[in-house]
């Protein structure tokens, strides 16, 4: 029986953030499940919902805010699995600026990732009562590029970082953890769900597709489980798949270690509806000029696939 | 008189420009018989070039009628009835002298072997044998002008239209080419329409001289030039020659205004 | 030729000297901060040495860039994904494909415009407007849209490169095809030459200088286009991917070496076009 | 006749658009598109071939643009292309209208601040260095070959570096614009200053004119057509440069900022509205420079003969 | 004889070109006294222009000596000793005709009001009154050439260098300007060095005619032209005139070769 084709679109460039999928691929877990999986790397300019709408992928890795936004824009994505339980997003500040608590942020310059990733930040600021429109009583916001340069070059007091990536670039830039103040969005109660697996709603009416996705999710979660237990080997597999040849082994090992802390492989990737509700509430309370979603979505997740995977 | 090669009736041409219309030709009546050598002479801007261009179908008359070999100028042009020599040589810089002279033959689909032979013969006629492989800019102005004459002769048109072909040449070279042209004309019986600024040149070459005057461009005089077919250079010092020259000069002066 | 060598070398030397000064000046704060955090107080010479040897400088010193270039081209097998030669090749192939398509389209457009007057009036303003559209903004959309049509790999990148490079060619060739003076065109008319004959024997040869000027600009544009197209193509491979990855991981040296490689690539290609131009000019009369 | 044709084409497209919004599709759609497009091509051909000066000359490009928009609308709606791939012109128009204040803010930030400042500085610096190179032959022969080398550096490469150097606000975008516009201006000005005829130079030499007089009286006027070529090429270039530079870090306003962030949020209608602003601003900028060119180089053959 | 305006001794000039050196002038010896009218005549490429350019310090001689008003050509140029009329009009297309004629006055720092008055007077002299506000391309070739003559006269130089100034004009205009130039010369006592291709023109205008020959460019004959200061146009039909013309023609023909 020939293997069935599945194309997976990642959210970002090849790195340990996606180790589970590369491991499942490299260790033949997909093949064993009767699947021929193609993994396409992403990048800062790649919007996975656009890719899936253009029929260039069967399933995508996406953050929930962007996935919900695409639902409102006519691309009805549905979450079929959620390997990442916790958010790795944080705001990292230079301690010498005197920032100790969220209240110290008033009047500071902050680097923020936009492109749909700004909503947790906006929700947080709304909760703190800090305007983000540049008034002196609030904070000054910069659209942060792909790296942490604004912090190293003192153009910003704080920048956005992921626990598993940019934070370590700050450390590599010559800072010790003691010289940094770190706010985790999870700790501030404004975390949103990150890397989940999404498919187009229309295809879920096809039982064969649901079954195929079930096998895909199960194999992927096995991959994640293996990666969590063998971080160094998993980092090696990621490096083997890096076409740009720009990643370093040390950085990927460290990243794999941090990623492992965000995972929840016990439920087979089952989404916790409470996490979902918290994400929606955070997004709806964020305000901003162009809200990412204007009303609570319906039908944005399903357990049908994880159930089929058992 | 045989059927005229060129027959113009009340020919007129108005250029429309931004500043308003410019009357370049007005009420031109002219018959040219086969084998004639006609010179057009007149002050700058009187419409000599324009008249030649109308004959060649490079400009469309806005009034009157004109026939070339009994047909419209366009039909005559498509039938390749005439050869045209412009005031400047207009050689293509990326072609050798031979290549330039062969160009009309190429356009007209004449077989390759014949092309080269005919072009070489014409180059010899204008004293350019040995310069076939040179490029135009390797020749002096006079030589370039001669090459352009060879090019116009290459496909042996029965009618030659020449617009101040010898304007840029010094007196000695000019005399020489005048003699050559006269010989060619006598030998082949071509019809020639020739524009010039030089009175002696016009008198030396022509069977008839057409004097034009500007604003609007019209024919003021047509002077017969019956010096016979055999004209050595020395004829220019004879009283008959000087008399005709004087008549042309007077005709010219009459139509002249210094502000042109 | 040799007359140009000394001035170019002098200006190069001046630029390199300026560059070193700039490197010291721009990296000073970085080094000073790091030293202060470490509690050290180095003297001037040590400071200068450190500013020129930063692993992630604000502005790398020239020798650092050269060393990185050397390391990533000469010390690795060219097939390795870490070899800059490999990435240069990926970009080059897309750039050349796009260049070919863009030049063909630009020339065809110019031919059509020169022969059909209505086309110039109606299409030309839109072509100008099309060049004011930021390609980088459209690149991701183009790549996805083309992907939806089943086109992927080299082709989308080449199309973006072609989009950037057809414009200078088209503009230049319209000028070039109209370069023959009125007298030469009249001459062809007196022989009642066909449009095709006028094109091949007059317009085309007369347009060659414009063609080469346009080709050179287009070549540089094609390289830029290929690099731009590599950013949203998933940062897989190519100089664009290296730039992006370098930027993403704050690897200044990697950015600069990719940049230097890109400049080297374009300069070589443009130089080759210059040689071709000379060869053609020599065939068309050795004056040049 | 032309008016009748225009009427017919307009009616045809209006009907077609109404039909597709009502759910027309399949073979009927293609037949309608083919008929309307044929009619429109004929119309554009007629308009373009008719002589026209000034405003009348605009009829052909405007008609062509309208036809492209209408076809776009019909095909996108008729084939039910998802908005995230390509929004319909009607959707873009509606969003444009709603987002007008936002678009204006972005326009001020990107165009009025970064583009204009960078354009003026870049063109000015290129011009100044060209004047210097014209006086110092050594510089000219050293700079020009390097010029083509540096001009080959991709903007996308230098933009992150300049953001790193000049900060997040419009200054770093202006720096990118300077880098992009500098070399076309330098190269063209140097060529232009060399364009004055040998005879004219000899004339001023025979007057024993000073170098300054020769520059002001002869070389600069003779260089104007070249200067304007550079100014025209640089106009759209400057805009693209500023927008692209914003992709690499910016404050939370600007055309490039909006395009990337909204594209990631799949608000493609807003992205396209911003692209429309860019295309219109770029064309208008180009047009203004072209008008100035016509006024300043009225004496040049290419302007004299239309 | 007063101190010569121009004194050339064994003057020679070699252009170094890619194909090797070109000897443009060789062993030129020439003295020109104040108030003389000297014509240079000779076949194309014999060095007439080159000689004029050496006098004007637009070209540096590679051998021999030359003095202009007893100084080096450079000093003479810096002292604005001469006016130069080029073969082509070389008008600036962005200036009106008046602006073009005022150009030398502007360069030489003459007050604005005076500039316009002097330029207008010169334009009247060459029959261009009423065309002050036109641009060069709105004038015919002949009018442009006259404007360039007015420009050279505007700052009243004592020495006039004229390189085929009347080459592009038709016979009538040329005759008219010849007369005007002769009048001006007689009235102002300027020294004129004049290049022409036309033998009658040279004889009509000059006090002495310098015949040159090419390869290498050298002076082969200097012919006195003692027709007196008063020369109506009709003098051209007198035997004395024709005799001188014949002598010039023979001198010219001797140095001529057709392949130039
Ligand atoms: N394309 C044109 N547009 C407008 N006016 C023109 C055009 N061509 C010629 N003219 C005008 O028509 C008149 C006749 O010009 P034409 O070239 O026939 O003169 P010509 O007798 O050949 O003069 P020349 O001896 O200077 O060559 C002139 O007044 C000229 O300005
Ligand atoms: N810049 C130059 N470089 C090389 N050779 C030159 C240069 N200028 C002139 N010559 C050569 O010097 C010789 C004399 O040229 P010149 O222009 O003085 O001739 P001329 O007598 O004025 O001719 P014409 O009657 O054609 O104007 C010619 O053989 C010419 O080819
Ligand atoms: C333009 C752009 N910048 C930053 C992010 C944020 N982000 C999401 S996943 C990821 C990788 C983690 O290291 C990062 C940085 C983004 N999505 N798009
Ligand atoms: Mg004429
Ligand atoms: Mg000369």
Automatic annotation (TrEMBL), chains B, E:
Q: Which InterPro entries match?
A: AAA+_ATPase (IPR003593), ABC_transporter-like_ATP-bd (IPR003439), ABC_transporter-like_CS (IPR017871), ABC_transporter_ATP-bind (IPR050166), P-loop_NTPase (IPR027417)
Occurrences of domain ABC transporter (ranges): 8-235
Q: Which CDD domains match?
A: ABC_NrtD_SsuB_transporters
Keywords, sorted A to Z:
ATP-binding, Nucleotide-binding, Transport
UniProt GO MF annotations: ATP binding
Mind telling me which Pfam families this protein's record contains? ABC_tran (PF00005)
Q: Which domain of life is it from?
A: Bacteria
Which regions form coiled coils? Answer: none
Q: Does the keyword Transport apply?
A: yes
Give the record's family classification. Answer: Belongs to the ABC transporter superfamily.
Q: Which PANTHER family match?
A: ALIPHATIC SULFONATES IMPORT ATP-BINDING PROTEIN SSUB, TAURINE IMPORT ATP-BINDING PROTEIN-RELATED
Give the protein's recorded name: ABC transporter ATP-binding protein
Q: What is the lineage of its organism?
A: Bacteria, Pseudomonadati, Pseudomonadota, Alphaproteobacteria, Acetobacterales
From TrEMBL, chain C:
Provide the transmembrane region boundaries: 88-114, 126-148, 154-174, 210-233, 253-276
Q: Where in the cell is it found?
A: Cell membrane
- Asked if the record carries the keyword Transmembrane, the reply is yes
Name used for this protein in its record = ABC transporter permease subunit
Annotated family: Belongs to the binding-protein-dependent transport system permease family.
Q: Tell me the membrane topology, using the record's own terms.
A: Multi-pass membrane protein
ABC transmembrane type-1 domain segment(s): 88-274
Database matches in Pfam families: BPD_transp_1
* The entry's keywords: Cell membrane, Membrane, Transmembrane, Transmembrane helix, Transport
Keyword tRNA processing appears in the UniProt entry: no
Which organism is this entry from? Falsiroseomonas selenitidurans
The UniProt entry, under InterPro entries, shows: MetI-like, MetI-like_sf
What PANTHER family does its record include? Answer: ABC TRANSPORTER PERMEASE PROTEIN HI_0355-RELATED, ALKANE SULFONATE ABC TRANSPORTER-RELATED, MEMBRANE SUBUNIT
UniProtKB/TrEMBL annotation, chain D:
| Superkingdom of the organism of origin | Bacteria
Q: What subcellular compartments does it reside in?
A: Cell membrane
Residue intervals of the ABC transmembrane type-1 domain? 126-294
The membrane topology noted for this protein in its Swiss-Prot or TrEMBL record is:
Multi-pass membrane protein
Q: What keywords were assigned to this record?
A: Cell membrane, Membrane, Transmembrane, Transmembrane helix, Transport
Which Pfam family, an example, fits this chain? BPD_transp_1
Span-the-membrane segments of this chain are 28-45, 57-81, 111-132, 144-168, 174-199, 237-259, 271-292
SUPFAM superfamilies to which the protein is assigned, alphabetical: MetI-like
Q: Which InterPro entries match?
A: MetI-like (IPR000515), MetI-like_sf (IPR035906)
Instruction: Return the protein name.
Output: ABC transporter permease
Q: Which organism is it from?
A: Falsiroseomonas selenitidurans
């Amino acid at each position: 029986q020939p293997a069935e084709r599945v194309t997976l679109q990642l959210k970002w460039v090849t790195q340990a953030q996606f180790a589970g999928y590369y491991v499942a691929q490299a260790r033949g877990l997909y093949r064993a499940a009767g699947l021929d999986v193609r993994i396409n790397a992403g990048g800062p300019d790649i919007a996975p919902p656009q890719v899936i709408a253009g029929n260039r992928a069967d399933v995508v890795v996406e953050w929930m805010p962007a996935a919900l936004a695409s639902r409102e824009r006519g691309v009805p994505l549905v979450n079929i699995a959620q390997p990442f339980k916790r958010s790795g997003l944080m705001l990292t500040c230079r301690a010498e600026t005197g920032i100790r608590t969220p209240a110290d942020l008033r009047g500071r310059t902050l680097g923020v990732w936009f492109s749909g990733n700004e909503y947790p930040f906006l929700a947080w600021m709304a909760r703190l009562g800090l305007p983000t429109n540049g008034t002196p009583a609030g904070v000054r916001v910069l659209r942060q590029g792909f790296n942490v340069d604004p912090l190293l070059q003192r153009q910003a007091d704080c920048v956005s970082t992921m626990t598993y990536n940019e934070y370590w670039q700050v450390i590599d830039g010559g800072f010790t953890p003691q010289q940094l103040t770190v706010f985790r969005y999870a700790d501030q109660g404004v975390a949103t769900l990150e890397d989940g697996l999404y498919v187009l709603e229309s295809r879920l009416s096809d039982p064969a597709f649901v079954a195929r996705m079930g096998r895909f999710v199960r194999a992927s979660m096995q991959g994640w489980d293996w990666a969590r237990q063998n971080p160094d080997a998993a980092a090696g597999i990621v490096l083997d798949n890096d076409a740009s040849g720009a990643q370093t082994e040390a950085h990927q090992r460290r990243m794999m270690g941090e990623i492992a802390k965000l995972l929840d492989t016990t439920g087979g990737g089952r989404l916790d509806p409470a996490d979902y509700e918290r994400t929606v509430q955070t997004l709806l309370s964020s305000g901003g000029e162009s809200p990412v979603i204007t009303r609570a979505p319906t039908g944005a997740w399903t357990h049908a696939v994880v159930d089929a995977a058992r | 008189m045989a059927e005229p090669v060129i027959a113009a009736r009340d020919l007129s041409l108005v250029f429309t420009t931004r500043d308003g219309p410019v009357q370049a030709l007005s009420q031109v009546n002219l018959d040219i018989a086969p084998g004639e050598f006609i010179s057009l002479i007149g002050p700058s801007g009187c419409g000599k070039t324009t008249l030649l261009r109308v004959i060649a179908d490079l400009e469309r008359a806005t009034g009157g009628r004109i026939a070339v070999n009994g047909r419209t100028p366009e039909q005559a042009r498509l039938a390749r009835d005439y050869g045209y020599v412009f005031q400047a040589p207009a050689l293509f810089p990326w072609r050798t002298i031979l290549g330039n002279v062969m160009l009309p033959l190429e356009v007209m689909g004449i077989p390759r072997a014949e092309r080269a032979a005919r072009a070489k013969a014409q180059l010899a006629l204008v004293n350019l044998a040995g310069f076939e492989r040179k490029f135009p800019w390797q020749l002096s102005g006079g030589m370039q002008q001669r090459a352009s004459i060879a090019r116009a002769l290459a496909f042996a048109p029965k009618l030659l239209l020449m617009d101040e072909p010898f304007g840029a040449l010094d007196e000695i070279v000019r005399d020489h080419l005048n003699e050559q042209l006269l010989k060619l004309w006598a030998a082949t019986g071509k019809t020639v329409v020739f524009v010039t600024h030089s009175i002696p040149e016009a008198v030396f070459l022509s069977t008839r001289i057409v004097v034009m005057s500007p604003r609007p461009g019209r024919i003021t005089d047509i002077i017969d030039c019956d010096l016979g077919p055999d004209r050595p250079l020395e004829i220019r010092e004879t009283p008959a020659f000087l008399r005709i020259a004087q008549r042309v000069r007077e005709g010219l002066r009459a139509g002249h205004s210094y502000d042109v | 030729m040799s007359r140009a060598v000394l001035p170019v070398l002098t200006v190069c030397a001046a630029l390199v000297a300026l560059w070193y000064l700039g490197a010291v000046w721009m990296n000073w704060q970085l080094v000073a901060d790091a030293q202060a955090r470490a509690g050290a107080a180095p003297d001037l010479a040590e400071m200068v040495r450190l500013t020129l040897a930063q692993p992630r400088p604000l502005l790398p010193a020239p020798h650092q860039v050269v060393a990185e270039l050397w390391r990533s081209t000469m010390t690795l097998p060219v097939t390795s994904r870490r070899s800059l030669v490999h990435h240069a090749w990926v970009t080059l192939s897309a750039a050349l494909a796009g260049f070919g398509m863009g030049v063909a389209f630009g020339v065809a457009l110019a031919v059509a415009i020169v022969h059909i007057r209505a086309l110039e009036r109606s299409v030309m303003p839109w072509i100008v407007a099309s060049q004011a559209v930021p390609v980088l903004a459209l690149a991701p959309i183009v790549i996805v849209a083309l992907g939806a049509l089943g086109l992927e790999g080299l082709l989308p990148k080449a199309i973006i490169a072609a989009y950037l490079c057809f414009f200078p060619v088209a503009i230049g060739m319209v000028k070039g095809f109209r370069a023959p003076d009125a007298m030469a065109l009249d001459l062809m008319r007196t022989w009642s030459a066909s449009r095709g004959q006028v094109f091949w024997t007059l317009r085309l040869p007369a347009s060659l200088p414009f063609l080469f000027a346009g080709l050179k600009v287009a070549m540089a544009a094609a390289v830029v286009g290929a690099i731009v197209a590599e950013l949203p193509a998933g940062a897989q491979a190519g100089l664009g991917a290296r730039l992006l990855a370098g930027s993403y991981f704050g690897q200044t040296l990697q950015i600069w070496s990719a940049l230097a490689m890109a400049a080297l690539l374009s300069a070589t290609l443009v130089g080759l076009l210059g040689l071709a131009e000379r060869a053609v000019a020599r065939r068309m009369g050795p004056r040049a | 006749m032309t008016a009748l044709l225009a009427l017919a084409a307009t009616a045809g497209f209006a009907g077609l658009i109404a039909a597709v919004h009502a759910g027309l599709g399949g073979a009927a759609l293609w037949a309608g598109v083919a008929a309307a497009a044929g009619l429109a091509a004929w119309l554009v051909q007629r308009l373009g071939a008719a002589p026209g000066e000034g405003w009348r000359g605009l009829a052909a490009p405007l008609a062509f643009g309208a036809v492209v928009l209408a076809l776009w609308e019909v095909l996108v709606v008729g084939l039910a292309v998802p908005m995230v791939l390509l929004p319909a012109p009607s959707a873009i128009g509606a969003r444009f209208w709603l987002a007008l204040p936002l678009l204006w803010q972005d326009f001020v930030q990107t165009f009025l601040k970064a583009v204009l400042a960078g354009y003026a500085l870049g063109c000015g610096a290129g011009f100044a260095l060209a004047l210097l190179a014209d006086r110092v032959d050594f510089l000219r022969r050293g700079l020009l070959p390097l010029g083509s080398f540096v001009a080959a550096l991709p903007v996308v490469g230098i933009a992150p570096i300049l953001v790193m150097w000049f900060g997040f606000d419009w200054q770093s975008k202006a720096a990118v614009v300077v880098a992009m516009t500098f070399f076309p201006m330098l190269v063209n000005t140097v060529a232009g200053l060399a364009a004055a005829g040998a005879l004219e130079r000899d004339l001023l030499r025979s007057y024993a004119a000073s170098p300054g007089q020769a520059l002001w009286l002869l070389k600069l006027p003779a260089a104007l057509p070249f200067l304007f070529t550079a100014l025209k090429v640089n106009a759209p270039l400057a805009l693209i440069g500023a927008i692209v530079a914003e992709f690499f870090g910016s404050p939370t306003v600007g055309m490039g900022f909006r395009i990337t962030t909204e594209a990631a949020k799949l608000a493609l209608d807003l992205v396209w509205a911003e692209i429309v602003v860019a295309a219109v601003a770029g064309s208008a900028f180009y047009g203004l420079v072209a008008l100035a060119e016509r006024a300043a180089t009225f004496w040049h053959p290419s302007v004299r003969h239309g």
